[in-house]
Amino acid sequence: MPIALDLRKGNVINYNGNSCLILESHHRTPGKGQPVVQTKMRNLTTGRSGDVRFQSTEKVEVLMTERKNLEFSYEDRGTYSFMDLESYDSLELDPDMLEEAIPFLVPNTEYEILFVDDKPVQLILPSTVELKVIESAVGIRGDTASNVQKPATLETNLVVQVPLFIKEGETIKVNTSDRSYSGRS
After folding, report:
1. Domain boundary at 30, 62, 94, which?
2. Which of 158, 53, 170, 164 shows the shortest CA–CA distance to 102?
3. Same domain, yes or no, for 40 and 70?
4. DSSP alpha helices (H): ranges in the chain?
5. Do 112 and 156 belong to one domain?
6. Which of 4, 48, 77, 140 has its CA 20 to 30 A from that of 99?
7. Domain that includes residue 170, residue range
8. CATH number for the domain that contains residue 132
9. CB 153 within 8 A of CB 167
10. pTM for the predicted model, two decimal places
């Protein structure tokens, strides 16, 4: 059985009888006392997140997981439909499970989904996604003395601040962690 020191982001463990996804894991060595592993984890049953501290040599039960690439097909009345490109099976996911990933879902795009015991538990976003600008104000000519930005609405209705030279119809890269402009595609 692995010890707490082996925990990494993305592991799923059995904690107090519940499946919990490790969101962050940091090894701490205080001046006095035993080294500890400070984790932030989400209970996959309730959806609640919390901080938990383990002794670095404490044994933990890591659950078997599987990652599959599924293609996002469409959204219908709050249900998000994905298709397995190997078996062509359809999988419907609730918005509660997708959380912060919803503004980055583009039809006909593959996404990685984490499964625990053949049950989907989380959509894993890449660090950046490419989205098309559908609405953006026209930049004022000559206003280039400083890093001036303007709001742009993307194809998923996400609004981000972009440089003045970005126009409607262009595809840009958006950082998924802080929802910021990352560059042109």
Report:
1. 62
2. 158
3. no
4. 95-98
5. no
6. 4
7. 128-184
8. 2.40.50.140
9. no
10. 0.75
Is residue 139's pLDDT more than 70?
A: no
- Please check whether residues 176 and 136 belong to one and the same domain: yes
At residue 30, does pLDDT exceed 90?
Answer: no
| Nearest CA among 84, 88, 131, 89 for reference residue 111 | 84
Structure tokens of 97? Answer: 């499970």
- Total length of the chain: 185
Burial of 93 (0-12, 13-18, 19+ CB in 10 A): buried
Residue 22's beta-bridge partner residues?
A: 41
Does residue 98 contact residue 47 with C-beta atoms inside 8 Å? no
Query: Burial level of 33, CB count in 10 A (0-12/13-18/19+)?
Result: exposed
**Residue at which a domain ends, from 16, 36, 62:** 62
Cα(96)–Cα(115) distance, integer angstroms: 16
Q: Residue 5 has what DSSP assignment? A: G
Instruction: Return the bridge partners of 131, or none.
Output: 172
**Domain of 12: which CATH number?**
2.30.30.30
pLDDT exceeds cutoff 80 at 144: no
Position 3: which residue type? Answer: I
- Give per-residue pLDDT as tens, 94-106: 888 887 889 999 9
